[in-house]
Amino acid sequence: xxxxxxxxxxxxxxxxxxxxxxxxxxxxxxxxxxxxxxxxxxxxxxxxxxxxxxxxxxxxxxxxxxxxxxxxxxxxxxxxxxxxxxxxxxxxxxxxxxxxxxxxxxxxxxxxxxxxxxxxxxxxxxxxxxxxxxxxxxxxxxxxxxxxxxxxxxxxxxxxxx
Length: 162
Description:
It is a single chain. By secondary structure, this protein is an alpha/beta fold. Helices cover 51% and strands 21% of the residues. The strands form two sheets. A four-stranded parallel beta sheet has the order 2-1-3-4, sandwiched between helices. The chain is globular.
């Protein structure tokens, strides 16, 4: 049996972070975690780009534009949606998740979902570097692994067709 699994290395790869400015107290911590993870795993600082958008709702359209340009080997999407007193939370959270999944499937570019959906600001801060770790770090780890799985699958396809 042949097993295909990703490596956790960023060496020689480029990464785009698509980041929501809304809830920047949280999202900047996610960016710090993601960049730290990538650099510790071999990424060069100039191989990491950060694209800032107004809010989480805008992340999918920016991610799609990045994917279409081919300027990054993998895209890491970072944002934070905190529940309020209206149904706005459900619309934004489900729309962003659905649309990012669509971007990933349409483009084939490795894309990870580091968009927090929490009940409170305290929960968000816990997931952005406090008690629950840093989900930006986790999204960067997943991006590296998914990128290497994708490369192996692409190479396997080329060999099978040759």
